[in-house]
Amino acid sequence: DMCLLTLSWHEMNEYELSHYHYNAVIDACAKKGVWAKALQLFSVMLQRQVEFNAITFNATISACERSGEWEKALELVSAMADSMLEMDTITFNASISACRKASKWEKALQLFEAMQECKVGPNTITF
Length: 127
Hints:
- 71% of the residues lie in helices and 0% in strands.
- It is mostly helical.
- The protein is globular and about 45 Å long.
- The relative contact order is 0.11.
- The mean pLDDT is 90.
C-alpha cells in the first residue's frame, strides 16, 4: 500500500517515472498477491509508453502465479514473446508454477518444452 501511495504521489507531482519505479511497485504487488493491481500498473505503463523489460513481465507473471491466475500468466508470457524480450528461468518457473497450482499439467509441460527450446536452463525450483 505504501508503494502505491508513493507512486501516486510522484505522479501527482509530475515526476517522470521509469520502469524502475513501476517494476518495484509491481514486485511489491506480486509479493502481496495483488495480481489485479499489478496488471493495472502494467497497463498504465503501456498506456504511458513507459519502457518495460523482462523484469516488468516477470514481476507481473509472478503476481498472477501467486494469486492463481494461470490464464493471465500465460497471456503475459505470450505478450513477452511478442515483445521479443528474452524469457529467463524466472519467466518459465513462475508460469509453470501458475499452471501447476491450477492442475494444468499439460500447459506446464508445454512451458517446460518451450523452456528447453529457448535454451533456458531449469533449476531446482523448476522441478
